[in-house]
Write a structure and sequence with these properties.
The protein is α/β, with parallel strands linked by helices and 220 residues long. It has helices at 22-33, 96-99, 109-122, and strands at 15-18, 38-41, 133-139, 142-147, 150-154, 156-160, 187-191. The chain binds flavin-adenine dinucleotide.
Length: 220
């Protein structure tokens, strides 16, 4: 059986990005464009984040319009395409309209997943898959992320991990199994100058929230 070489082994990086959903992919693309040495790790096995599974009704609510007064790939067209990630190279821009059939002005879940995978592939983003962030602690030089593959040291960590906690409507009788999720898009930056924002403990270790409703949690 072929052994797939994984990028970004545990070690020291300027920045570590956790997550391979839209937040992690765009962050990595922009860090690379800025020349920032960074690692990307993800508990998933493929790019796309929550769009590999959600929304359960299989269609987004944000539009990508095929027809617009502006050419696809221009800055102005972005107003008509809220789902493509952003790139400098023309061949990596406005990918979503290329992947959608014309049934709706909003992509299906599968089309969105394909758009994110195409962005990662065309831009050549590297991601260490199957690597789960388990805890964060500080040391004198910055942050240490403890993961299933080992320890990552960095000055700054970006947690592009989407929905982390279930939200339950304050309605008597509501069942937790039907609870919606909080709005996602929570890329969190924790710099060595400030305490990780998701951590309420002074100098101890922070663990990612364990949540049965987390769309990325294995086995949920
Ligand atoms: C029901 C629903 C419908 C939505 N519809 C739309 C829509 O129509 N249009 C729109 O723009 N947005 C929509 N959103 C919001 C959108 O899904 C999020 O804003 C977006 O997915 C957040 O991107 P993300 O990359 O931060 O996280 P996600 O896409 O959630 O990806 C999280 C990533 O982090 C990884 N991860 C998590 N925990 C760990 C860990 N401990 N260690 C390692 N990796 C980890 C996961 O494996 C995954 O790769 C919707 C959200 C929901 C819940």
């Amino acid at each position: 059986m072929a052994v797939v070489e994984q990028p970004f082994p545990p070690g020291e990086y300027d920045v570590v990005v956790v997550g391979s959903g839209p937040g992690g992919l765009q962050t990595s693309y922009d860090l690379r464009a800025l020349g920032v040495r960074h690692a990307v790790i993800s508990a998933d096995e493929a790019p796309g984040g929550m769009f590999q599974r959600f929304p359960v009704f299989e269609r987004l609510i944000t539009w990508t319009k095929q027809d617009s007064p502006f050419e696809h790939g221009t800055r102005e067209y972005e107003w008509y395409d809220h789902n493509s990630l952003l790139a400098e190279e023309p061949e990596s821009r406005a990918l979503m309209p290329q992947l959608m059939d014309r049934t709706y002005d909003v992509p299906s879940r599968q089309e969105m997943e394909a758009g994110l995978a195409a962005f990662a592939q065309r831009t050549g983003l590297e991601i260490r898959y199957g690597c789960r962030w388990e805890a964060t602690r500080r040391d004198d030089d910055g942050l240490v992320l403890e993961t299933s593959d080992g320890e990552y040291r960095c000055r700054t960590a970006v947690f592009a991990i989407g929905v982390t906690e279930p939200w339950k409507a304050p309605i008597p009788g509501g069942s937790s199994s039907s609870a919606s999720a909080t709005p996602a898009s929570r890329s969190r930056a924790a710099s060595s100058r400030g305490r990780p924002r998701s951590c309420s403990r002074p100098r101890g270790r922070c663990r990612p929230h364990a949540s049965a409703a987390h769309p990325s949690a294995p086995g949920t």
